[in-house]
Specification:
Layout: H1 2-26, E1 42-43, H2 45-53, E2 59-62, E3 72-74, H3 81-91, E4 100-103, H4 115-124, E5 130-133, H5 139-142
Parallel strand pairs: 1-5, 2-3, 2-4, 4-5
InterPro entries: Rhodanese-like_dom, Rhodanese-like_dom_sf
Keywords: Signal
Protein name: Rhodanese domain-containing protein
Length: about 160
């Protein structure tokens, strides 16, 4: 009986340790998904709006199903393989140090199905100046309501 209790205790400790460590790996500041970006790869809306207004050289990709920010190329939901492939083709041949910004804004970042596959692609392709537009709530709240520029063709 003592041997069985010992084994059960060891199993219980092992399970608790496993749950704790897996939980630590997936809990992030944006929810329960693992993020392929670092905090310094997030760009705030006001910063991007200023970059747009000063005509800084960059590539902006809308990888969601929302309105296009001024200068953005609309690709569609990056959670769909064909749209992720569109992004891959656009990136092909670009210098690895180009400034590339992706965004979605369909929903809160913790729930967004599009930003992680797109940013992972940038990471896999070894882009050194890649950023994700930080839209904690959505594009409407964090960009449009603040009066930041949109492509006029999409209005």
């Amino acid at each position: 009986m003592k041997n069985i209790l010992y084994k059960l205790t060891c199993i219980l400790i092992f399970l608790i340790a496993g749950i704790s460590s897996s939980h630590a790996q997936i809990v992030t500041s944006y929810g329960l998904q693992s993020n392929p970006w670092e905090n310094n790869q997030l760009i705030r809306p006001a910063v991007l709006a200023k970059m747009i207004s000063t005509n800084q050289k960059m590539h902006i990709y809308n990888i969601g199903v929302v309105q296009d920010i001024k200068g953005a190329v609309h690709l569609g939901a990056a959670s769909e393989k064909e749209n992720l492939e569109k992004l891959r083709k656009l990136l092909k041949g670009l210098p690895k140090n180009e400034t590339i910004i992706v965004y979605c804004g369909c929903c809160p970042m913790g729930k967004c199905p599009n930003i992680r596959p797109a940013f992972q692609l940038l990471k896999d392709q070894k882009f050194t100046n890649a950023f994700l537009l930080e839209l904690p709530v959505n594009l409407k709240t964090d960009w449009i309501s603040k009066g930041y520029p949109l492509n006029t063709e999409t209005l």
